[in-house]
Amino acid sequence: MLAGMKFGGSELAGLIVAVSFAAGLNVYATVATLGLLAHAGLLDLPSGLHLVSSWWVIAVSGVLFAIEFFADKIPAFDLFWNALHTFVRVPVAALIAFGATSGLSPEKQLLAALAGGAIALAAHGGKTAARVAVTPSPEPVSNFALSAGEDALAVFLTWLAAQHPIAAALIVAAFLSVIVVLMRWVFRAMSRAMKNLFRGAEKELAPSKRRDLDAA
Length: 216
Hints:
This protein is mainly alpha-helical.
């Protein structure tokens, strides 16, 4: 819920969508930003998320964000780091969505948690795919710039969700559309590559098969 205004269903949905996407990019920055916004009076956290405003949670999230800030910018190592954080970003996003809907029925909370986890997984998948594409680059600047942009976007979306949740959700919807298109393109490219690989292998094996038949 937002401070100074009644937080209706659409605003709550916008908050969940934006924050879940942000958590998929950088969960530590998202949690720390939520807590700081609550202390600044810019965000009235639902009762299920009051723990996020704890200074202990903010401090730990800040330290982990500092670690990720450097770890996520090391070429090659960032792929391992992101793979490991599949088991952090997605569950935490689901928990945030679950806590944000503490005033709703258990069924709606479960649906919110599933939606939050799915959105975070999409953001995480897009982030990982972008890293796979950039990591082979011989210069580290592109990798650093991409990671810094993701960090900034996570903080910005979390802040925007506290002020204008509908606008934040619309921005996320645009990003999700891009991710879906890119993922389809990646899968098609991989499929074509696999088909070409199999065709090449068949062509190489064909002469040897003919020789075996002639020898028999």
